[in-house]
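Protocol step 4 of 5: obtain the predicted structure for the target chain.
Materials: sequence only (see below). No template structures provided, no constraints applied. The aim of this step is simply to have a reference model before the mutagenesis design in step 5. Sequence pasted as it appears in the construct record:
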Amino acid sequence: CFDCTIICFAEVATLEEDTARELSVGELLERANRDRTPDLDEPTLIGGDIAVKSLADRNADPCTSRGCLWLKWTDGKVYIPYYIANHYSSRERSIIVRGLESFSAVSCIRFRPYREGDREWLSIESRNG
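Step 4 output (structure tokens):
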């Protein structure tokens, strides 16, 4: 069928284009989750990778609804604690940490491991995505 041939050629061209350039993290996340159906008990995702417990929780923090930012320290840096779930292998953890560290090269953001007493932190975990 002629229409099928056109579609197949378009898919091959798109695949070749994608492999010719490095995909962004956002593009990789989108591809990984494209055909996935979330479980009923999973939190809602915003932007494909930010989990919120329910729609009502989106603006439960008044600071979030006003657009507050992480506090900047006197050295001009923003330190954000993170916790990586234990189900990742050491290789996967290393890749995640390298990704977090890549922000330091282009911003004032500095990620650091979670410490007891931290009130806010990023929780990095896999949930079938």
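Step 4 remarks: The first helix runs from residue 2 to 20. Confidence is low (pLDDT under 50) at residues 1-10.
Proceed to step 5.
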